[in-house]
């Protein structure tokens, strides 16, 4: 199923948005930049403390709709087509069945184009379950509204400063459950604007 910026709003309301996200115990991956004055490279005030080891991380899959957040799952090991299909069977189907009937009968599932998501077995399983699949672009910067939910959780992680991976997972669960439905409504309402912004930038991040 294809949705676009001019789709009627009731179609956006039917989408189940999903994605994966990595939560690090000690901040983001990659290079961090620090602003400093000239000749102050070694001044402790202008340096960023590091840890010898990353401390670990948690990979999470989750989904949500206009009506609120759905299941969130801690991922362990490699996520291939077999484990992804098991995840959908265990969590997505029950979530869809718990939606209001008017939403359940028109629900459209959104997922990214990771190889395990687009495998023949997973697509066949979705068809067997009569789950409509949203036609999602290969490059989709700033389009998936669930990224905003991940940002909220990561902000909570930083504020609470978990010390262990176990604590980090506990915080993720607590922060996810605290997300109010109003935020989900606002994110879905923003979809036409998100599409318009990305199109105006020729597909580049907005």
Write the layout of secondary structure elements.
Elements lengths: L8 H4 L2 E10 L32 E9 L2 E8 L5 H18 L2 H4 L3 E2 L10 H9 L3 E2 L12 H15 L4 H14 L2 H9 L1 H10 L6
Parallel strand pairs: 1-4, 4-5
Antiparallel strand pairs: 1-2, 2-3
Helix pairs in contact: 5-6
Please tell me about this protein's structure:
- The chain is α/β, with parallel strands linked by helices and 206 residues long.
- Helix content is 40%, strand content 15%.
- It is built from 8 helices and 5 strands; from the N terminus they run H-E-E-E-H-H-E-H-E-H-H-H-H.
- A 5-stranded mixed beta sheet has the order 3-2-1-4-5, with helices on both faces.
- Helix 5 (146-160) crosses helix 6.
- The chain is globular, with a radius of gyration of 19 Å.
Quick description:
With 206 residues, the chain is of the alpha/beta class.
Shape: globular
Number of strands: 5
SS field, number of helical segments: 8
Order of neighbouring strands in the sheet with most strands: 3-2-1-4-5
Estimate the mean pLDDT confidence: 82
Helix/sheet category = alpha/beta
Largest sheet: 5 strands, mixed
Q: What descriptors fit this protein?
A:
single chain; 206 residues; alpha/beta; five-stranded mixed beta sheet; 40% helix; globular
């Amino acid at each position: 199923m294809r949705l676009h910026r001019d789709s009627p709003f009731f179609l956006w309301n039917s989408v189940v948005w999903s994605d994966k996200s990595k939560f690090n115990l000690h901040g983001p991956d990659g290079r961090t930049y620090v602003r400093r004055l000239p000749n102050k490279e070694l001044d402790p005030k202008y340096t960023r403390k590091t840890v010898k080891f990353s401390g670990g991380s948690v990979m999470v899959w989750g989904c949500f709709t206009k009506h609120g957040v759905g299941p969130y799952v801690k991922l362990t090991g490699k996520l291939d087509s077999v484990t992804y299909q098991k995840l959908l069977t265990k969590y997505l189907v029950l979530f869809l069945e718990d939606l209001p009937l008017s939403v359940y009968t028109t629900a459209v599932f959104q997922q990214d184009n990771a190889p395990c998501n687009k495998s023949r077995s997973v697509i066949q399983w979705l068809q067997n379950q009569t789950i409509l699949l949203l036609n999602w672009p290969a490059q989709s910067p700033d389009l998936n509204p669930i990224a905003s939910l991940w940002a909220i959780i990561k902000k909570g992680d930083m504020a609470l400063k978990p010390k262990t991976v176990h604590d980090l997972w506990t915080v993720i669960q607590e922060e996810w459950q605290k997300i109010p439905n109003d935020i989900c409504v606002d994110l879905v309402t923003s979809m036409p604007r998100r599409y318009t912004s990305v199109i105006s930038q020729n597909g580049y991040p907005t």
